[in-house]
Fold each of these.
Amino acid sequence: MKIGELAKLAKCSTETIRFYEKRGLLTRPDRSENNYRHYTKQHLNRLLFICNCRILEMSHDEIQILIAIMDNPDNQGGHDNAHNLLANHLHHIDERIEELTKLRKQLIKLQQNCHSADQSCGILQEITDMPITNKIIKSHV
C-alpha cells in the first residue's frame, strides 16, 4: 500500500509516518520502480502500535524501548523491562495529575478572587503579580 493508504488506515498524517520513519520507530519501506513507498501489513501494525502508545502519552524514547522488546521476543528481560517502563510512565502520569490538580485549584482561586472595581481585569493583574514559585506546570519528558 502507498503512504496515503497507510495514513488513512492508521488515522494519521503522511507527515507523521515520515517522521516516525526518520526517528527509526517505523522501518523504512521498500520502494517501487516509480520510487513510491510500498508499505506492508507489518508497517500498519507497527504504526498502529506507535499511535496507540502516543495516545497513552508515551514518549518516543519509551516507544523505542517497547519496540526493541517486541522485536526481540526471546530476550528474557523483555517482560520485566516493559513492566518497569510502564511503572515509570504511571509515576510520571501521577506527577502530572498532581501538578494539574494544583493548577486547577490555583485557577479557581484566581477566578474567585477577581473583584475588580475599576475597568481593569483583576485576573490579569493577579497573574502578573503571582510569585514565580507558584507557577507549577512542568513539561513531561
Note: The chain has a mean pLDDT of 87.
Amino acid sequence: MSSVQTTSRDLGVRAAGIAIGVLADAVFGDPRRGHPVAVFGAWAGRLEQRLYRPTRARGALYAALGAGLPTLGAAGLDRCCTGRPVARAGLTALATWTALGGTSLAREGARMATALENGRTPQARELLTHLCARDPSRLEPPELARATVESLAENTSDAVVAPLFWAAVAGPAGVIGYRAVNTLDAMVGYRSERYEQFGWAAARVDDVVNLLPSRLTAVLTVASAPVVRGSSARAWAVWRRDRNRHPSPNAGQCEASAAGALGVRLGGTNVYGGEVESRPVMGGDERLPGIADVRRAVRLGQCVGALAAVVCAGAVVVAAAVAGRGQKGGAA
C-alpha cells in the first residue's frame, strides 16, 4: 500500500474522529468528575513544585516537560492504532472531546446571563471566576457583562476553535499538545512576582500555538455577525482597526471582532490579582455591553464553534480527497 493511499485513509479517519468528538461535546459537555484536563492540571502542579525556580530556564524546562510528555504519549498511542481505523478514529474523537469546552462555555455564559437578568450580582461575581482570572469583587452588572463578553470571545478561540484547528492539523498529538500548552499558560503564564520569569516560556508557547486559531476565530466571528443581528462589514472594519490594540497578540483578534459583531465597546480597566490594568478600547464609539449582550455573545460563540467544526473537519476531508486523487494519478 502506498504512503499516499495511507495518508488519504488516515485523513478520512481523522475527519471522522473530529466529527465524533464535536458531537460528544455537544451531547455530554465536559465530564463533571475526573476530567482529563483536571487530572493533567494536578500532575502539572506537582511537576511545578519539583522544578520551580524563579528563572526562565527552569520555566522552559517545565513547559517542555509539561507539554512534551502528553504530546509524545498521544503520538505514541496514535501510532499504535496504525492499521486500525476504528481505534484511530476513537482516539481522535476522545482527544478532541477532552480538549473541547464549547458546550460548558456556553452553559457558563447562559448562567451568567440569568444571574444578571435576575439581579443576583453576588452570584454573577462568583460565576465570573469560572470564565477568567479577573477580580470580580467590586464589579457591578455593567462591568460584569463586559468581562463576560470579553471572556466568551477569547475562550471561544482557546476552548473551541484552537482545539479543532490542531486536531485537524496533527490529530490526537496536536489537540492534546495544544490543550497541555493552554493549561500550562493558565496555570503559570500570567505576570506575578512568582511567575514573571518561570511562566515566560509557557506564555510564549501559548502565544505561538494560538496565532493562527485566534485569527481563524476572528474571521468566523465576522461571518457569524448576522446571527446576533450584527453587521459582518462592521465586524470586519472593527477587527482590522482594533485587533492589535490588546496587549495579547491573540486575545485582541477575538475581542475586536466580537466587539464589531455585537456592536459594543470592549476594553478598559481590569484588576488581576490586585494589579490594575488599563487596556485600550476596542469598538470605538459603540455602546458598552448590556446584560442582553451576554446572551448574544453566547449565541455568537456557538455559531463560531459550529462553523469551526465544519471548516476544520471539512478541510481534512478535502485533504483526504486530494491525497486520494494523487494516489490514483500516480497509479495510472
Note: Residues 153 and 255 are 6 Å apart (CA to CA).
